[in-house]
Each structure stands twice: as structure tokens, then as C-alpha cells.
Design a protein that fits this description.
Strand order of the largest sheet: 3-4-5-6-7-8-9-10-11-12
Oligomer: single chain
Structural class: alpha/beta
Helix content: 25-40%
Strand content: 15-25%
Number of helices: 11
Length: 394
């Protein structure tokens, strides 16, 4: 491995799917002073071993590294011998500059205490965690104390895990500086009525601060079960900085919730709005969104239920209004259902010059929702154009 000359300016080194060993990883860490991201399955294990060796030898000067991003991914039990959250807890002691942390695991032996070992991460800005199919890892036992300690520095938070109740007030209370929030409630365990009632009583006592800087909101609820409280939805949607909203399969989102948020800021910075299978919301929300002062560029709406009477006519009139006002908005709205024995009614769409105010919004009614599984999210990352990048791929 080259560790001289211009190589010393390397900031991102990708060694995935290579034959590089423990020794090579150690050399990269020790001889690349500008290294910010080192992609290899053994990186965290090597860092943990370096720290343990320094402690065992009682070194007065424990080595520190410049890594700012760390990722741990466990999908197969055999990988457990390579890396774990316990190793990550040791590694963070010698990586004081970490601002990005990605944890993605389907293993069942990760516990609440494992995450608590990461509390030294005082400068964390981007945190992604996906822990699925694991009854030993809970929000109260792990993420609540973690967010209480590190949440104030977070700018981006993505959580993809099993949740029994709505923890959104906990997030807003501890993560006041968030710019981006992604919540993906997957494979929800059913808790008892007593547990939910107890949690509801406790949450009413909590402060509910608005996330004033939140610009991006992505929310997925499994099978529209109504886990998320309407108050929590309004709390998230009340951010005056929102530019992008994407909500899927939410069983408690309604026109009234959106109206309450619109009363605060009229969504006057919103550029993109997507709703999928939120069947208690109707086409009437266009009245809230379609304002001449709003910078909207994209509206995408889908419902999994039978199309209500008058829908196509109202949609057509909105598109005519957009053309008349020269609004550069891409608008898509569709209903679909799986009922094969019901024939859809064809509606005649006329070229009426009526203003939108003449539309009878009461023609739109709600239908019962159908269950649908939430789609998994995939993590995406971007590379700064000013960073030095080296990729070695076998």
C-alpha cells in the first residue's frame, strides 16, 4: 500500500471486497493523516484493537485518528466475529472527530447497552440506525439516552427499527437542530392497551418543541396501523423550514392535521410533497398547498382505495388553474384499489373555465384504508467534490 507522497492527502479510501488484511488497515490509519473515511469490514475491529492495546500497555499518549465517518453493517451471524457494537464503543475513544455514524444490522444479539457505549460521540451530526427483528434493542433503553446525550448536535437522523409506540416527542425534545429526519417504523410489535395508555399519559407531560430548522421529513408507518399520534404528525409538520415532505401508509394523517400545520406557516417554503396510501387525506389538501407564494415544484399523491366521485373533475380544474397562473408544478394524483368485482365509473371531464373556488370540495369523501407493507429505505451518501477519493475494488 502506498503511504508516501500525494497519497497522504487521501481522505476517502474504499477497500471493500479486497484482500487487504488487519496489517494493511493499520498502516492506512497510521500513515494517512488526512483520512476521513475508510471503508472495510475490519476497520472498526482494527480501531478497537489499537485502543485496547494502548490501554493494556498504559500508554500516556493514546493515538488519535482523523476519521469522521464510520459504518457498521451486520447481516449474517458469521460476521459477528468481525465487528460489533462493542468494538465500535472502543473505537470511538480514538476517533474524536466522528460526525457520521451508520449502523445497519439484522442480528438479534445487539442490546441496548451496546449503543450506550457510543455516548462519547459529542460531535455527531449524521446518524443512521437500522435495527430490525431484534426484541433486545428498544427505543427507551438505547435511543432515548443516546439522543439525550448527542441529539443537540445532530443535523440528520434516520431511524429504521421495530417500535411499539410513538416516540416522536422524544426526538423533537432532544434533537432541536435537525435538518433532515427519516422515520421508518418496520415490523411493529403489538403492545398491550395498558402499555399504550401509560405511554400516552406520560407523553402529555412532555414538552413538544417544534423543529424550527427541519427541512426534509420522510415518514413510513407499516400497514397504516395508526401508531403515530396526530399530535406528533402536527409537531413534525409545523416546522417553518420544511422543503420536502414524504409520508407513506400513515393511518392517522388527515386533512385536519395538515390544516393545523398550514395555519402556522402555510408551507411557504415547501418544494416537494409526496403522500402514498395515507387514505384519510383527500384531494382537498391541494387548497392548502397550491398558493402563488409557495415554491412548490412537485406534488405526488396516491391512495389505495376506490376513487371518489368528482376526483378527476377537481384535479382537471386544478391543472387548468396551474396553467392559467403559469405555475411550474408537476402534479400527479391517482387512486387505485384491488377490488376486482367493482367496475370503475367513467367520469366526463369538461373544459370548464370555472375558478377553483367554485369546486364543491364536499364531493370528495374518505374510504376505508387497506393494509399495505411499508417499503424499506436504502441509505444514500454523497461525496464532497473537494475530497480526495481512492477506491480499490477486487
Amino acid at each position: 500500500m502506498c503511504v508516501i507522497g500525494k497519497c497522504k492527502s487521501i481522505q476517502i479510501l474504499d477497500l471493500t471486497r479486497t484482500a487487504v488484511t488487519y496489517e494493511g488497515i493499520t498502516k492506512a490509519l497510521e500513515h494517512l493523516p488526512s483520512l476521513r473515511k475508510l471503508k472495510h469490514r475490519q476497520t472498526i475491529r482494527v480501531l478497537a484493537q489499537i485502543y485496547k492495546r494502548a490501554v493494556d500497555e498504559k500508554l500516556s499518549d493514546i493515538p488519535k485518528f482523523t476519521l469522521s465517518s464510520i459504518q457498521i453493517t451486520n447481516f449474517r451471524p458469521k460476521w459477528n466475529r468481525d465487528v460489533g457494537l462493542a468494538d465500535l464503543g472502543l473505537a470511538v475513544h480514538i476517533c474524536p472527530l466522528i460526525t457520521e455514524l451508520y449502523i445497519h444490522s439484522t442480528l438479534s444479539n445487539i442490546t441496548d447497552n451496546d449503543l450506550l457505549g457510543l455516548l462519547p460521540l459529542e460531535k455527531l451530526e449524521h446518524f443512521y440506525i437500522s435495527i430490525r427483528l431484534n426484541a433486545n434493542f428498544t427505543f427507551d433503553g438505547s435511543l432515548t439516552p443516546f439522543l439525550k446525550a448527542t441529539g443537540n448536535s445532530l443535523k440528520e437522523l434516520t431511524i429504521n427499527m421495530v417500535l411499539e409506540v410513538d416516540y416522536i416527542p422524544t426526538i423533537t425534545r432532544h434533537c432541536s437542530n435537525l435538518r433532515s429526519l427519516g422515520l421508518y417504523f418496520n415490523h411493529t410489535r403489538l403492545c398491550s392497551v395498558g402499555q399504550r395508555n401509560s405511554f400516552s399519559r406520560n407523553r402529555t407531560k412532555l414538552e413538544r418543541p417544534i423543529l424550527n430548522y427541519l427541512e426534509i421529513l420522510n415518514l413510513v408507518e407499516p400497514r397504516s396501523i395508526g401508531l403515530i399520534h396526530p399530535e406528533s404528525l402536527c409537531l413534525l409538520l409545523s416546522s417553518p423550514s420544511l422543503k420536502s415532505i414524504s409520508i407513506s401508509s400513515c393511518g392517522t394523517l388527515t386533512d385536519d392535521v395538515l390544516q393545523e400545520a398550514a395555519n402556522l406557516h402555510s408551507f411557504n417554503k415547501l418544494e416537494s410533497f409526496e403522500l402514498s396510501e395515507c387514505n384519510l387525506v383527500t384531494i382537498k389538501i391541494l387548497d392548502l398547498l397550491m398558493k402563488a407564494t409557495n415554491p412548490l415544484e412537485w406534488i405526488w399523491l396516491t391512495w389505495k382505495q376506490r376513487e371518489p366521485k368528482g376526483f378527476k373533475k377537481i384535479l382537471c380544474r386544478w391543472k387548468k388553474q396551474m396553467a392559467k397562473n403559469h405555475w411550474n408544478v408537476s402534479l400527479s394524483a391517482d387512486y387505485y384499489d384491488d377490488v376486482s368485482d367493482v367496475e370503475s365509473e367513467d367520469e366526463e371531464i369538461t373544459d370548464s373555465d370555472e375558478e377553483i373556488s367554485d369546486v364543491d370540495s364536499e364531493e370528495i369523501y374518505d374510504s376505508d384504508s387497506e393494509d399495505s407493507p411499508a417499503e424499506d429505505s436504502e441509505e444514500s451518501s454523497s461525496t464532497d467534490s473537494n475530497e480526495e477519493l481512492l477506491i480499490i475494488d477486487g
